[in-house]
């Protein structure tokens, strides 16, 4: 596979986050593109119009990690939807070279990609967004996922989580389309032993991500 395809999705880098991976000061890598069309998306520019977002080069990411990894205890990979990036393994391998564990945020609608990453040991922790009850997926995803597909895909993810509980956690954002009964329904969908993390909905905004030029400034004089 042409790995340039994957690297073309690298559209943001936050040097330090204390909240994306609780207990792990981490950098955050943003990969553009998404298979869903959630009307409440907080990051539509990155999800649906990534070509207009500044590109971060592989060399910039490598130099950043080389210089900053000693201050970090992990990398969060987010999007968009990272599992939908063609050849995303190339980026994960580059991150793994740093020796830092990787947490990856996913909407769970491409379970075969999650399975592969788990098998290859590329990701330590999957943060899975459960959008809501299965029946609300069409409304929650802008019509991208019907109820049956939501049930099928999440069931595969839940089965993986039952086998590897240490590698998953589940969360739901309390968007306006959901009420407390829906949140209880989601809790009841999870495999035994898992609790649901909920987060309040915040109006859409662009993430505090660095452009390539800003990343260079942060890390010193990096060479392409
Ligand atoms: S899955 Fe996430 S990134 Fe994709 S459209 Fe929905 S909220 Fe946006």
Helical percentage: 25-40%
Tell me the number of strands.
7
| Corresponding CATH superfamily | Aldolase class I
CATH topology: TIM Barrel
Bound molecules: iron/sulfur cluster
Detailed description of the structure:
The longest helix is centred in the last third of the chain and has 17 residues, at 147-163. With 224 residues, this protein is an alpha/beta fold. The chain has nine helices and seven strands. It has one domain: Aldolase class I (TIM Barrel). Residues 218-224 have low confidence and may be disordered. Helix 3 runs parallel beside helix 9. It binds iron/sulfur cluster (SF4). Iron/sulfur cluster binds at residues 34, 36-38, 41, 43, 47, 79-81, 107. The site of iron/sulfur cluster has 11 residues, from loops.
Concise structural overview:
The protein has helices spanning 3-7, 44-48, 58-68, 88-97, 111-120, 137-140, 147-163, 180-189, 212-219, and strands at 10-17, 26-31, 74-78, 102-106, 125-129, 168-174, 196-200. It is α/β, with parallel strands linked by helices. The chain starts with a helix and ends in a 5-residue tail after the last helix.
What topology does this entry show?
Blueprint: H1 3-7, E1 10-17, E2 26-31, H2 44-48, H3 58-68, E3 74-78, H4 88-97, E4 102-106, H5 111-120, E5 125-129, H6 137-140, H7 147-163, E6 168-174, H8 180-189, E7 196-200, H9 212-219
Parallel strand pairs: 2-3, 3-4, 4-5, 5-6, 6-7
Antiparallel strand pairs: 1-2
Iron/sulfur cluster binds next to loops.
